Here is the input.
Amino acid sequence: MKRRYIGYGISILLICLIVGVLIWFQIGRNRNRKEQLSVETSTGAGISLKEYPDEIPVVNWNGLDKMYRICNTKIKSDFYNNMSECRTSFKSDVSLEEMIQTNRDDYIGMFTYYTGKWKEKGALFFKDDNYYLLSYDEYWDIFTGECCYSSYTYTYTFIYVPTPVHLDIDPDVIAAADEIGHYELDALFDHYSFDEFCRFYKRMSPNLYKIDKEKQTVTLDAYDSKKDKMRDKLITFDFKNQSVTGPDEKGKMITISKHKQPSPSKK
Here is the structure.
């Protein structure tokens, strides 16, 4: 009987030992898997983010309370996050190519981004209906991460819409700029055809835009920063007439044409 109890004890001990080894092995596998998933999800290339500890945050066009980590780097100095302009500037000794490697998952390719008469060439990223550009200015030795959008302004209300160029669409400002030969809408209509402009939205949710191929128009949902909400199909870009249509301070739709004064919309 005593020998039987001893046998039971040895069997239980062996079972506990085997279970313990299996649990330890599984924990080790899970820990390694979590580490691998974390690195792959963060970088898409298995690069250790320990080498690049500083995140580069950029505000989204569709909600100024939302932030996106465009890439990682080592920030040297002069970090500046302009939330209202969806832009972050900083200095770093890390190259643009190295920063791209910290987010291969969202990286699309190199891209030329037009702002008025200026242009920036940088790395383009896309995530959750937002395009982001990460560029380097050699003259000022500064990096900039920014969301690709245009602002439509009336009576201190800023409306944000996603666009492949940056435009400041303010009827009064555009009219004044036209008089001195600075045509804000040239940045769009001189660099993009209707088909090229439409391709920019193919990655985005279909409910955010409406394309009319016959009229050559693209109508976009917009983010109203004053009301902190999305507004359905608010801004229209018309490539046939090279114009932009949006609301005035009373909610009436007006059309801003290239090199012309704003006029009431026929809508």
Notes: The first strand starts at residue 54 and ends at 60. The CA atoms of residues 40 and 46 lie 5 Å apart.
